[in-house]
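BUG: 3D viewer hangs when loading the predicted structure for this chain

Environment: internal workstation, default settings.
Expected: structure renders.
Actual: progress bar stalls at 90%.

Input used:
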Amino acid sequence: MQGTNPILEKEYLADGAVAISRIVKPGTNEDDAAQATAVSEKFLGVAQHAAADNERVRIMEMGITEVEFGGTIDYGDPLTSDAAGKAVVAAPAAGVNNNIIGFSRTGGVSGDIGTALLAPGRIQG
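Structure tokens produced before the viewer hung:
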């Protein structure tokens, strides 16, 4: 494992339960973060610890962080979220957009904890 390199972390209020190393999106309110559930969502970053609903949770927004994989991933793959906030390869169909959280810095399979360089954006197939 390459380890982490935090550049920017921010604390939010968990909007529902948030698991460690999962991708998060903006919650209901401006200072809330919820676990991501779809490629179409705008992502905030990755949870640095688990939090229950209405607890404070630290989110890494920039840097290299650990993220849980939800499928087979190779080094350098663009990463998006599955329905459980796990990182999966962004592979949109032609003309379709996927929001991404960044790029994999390690390879692995579903259930592995890998690392990702956070660089939120959007790619089109």
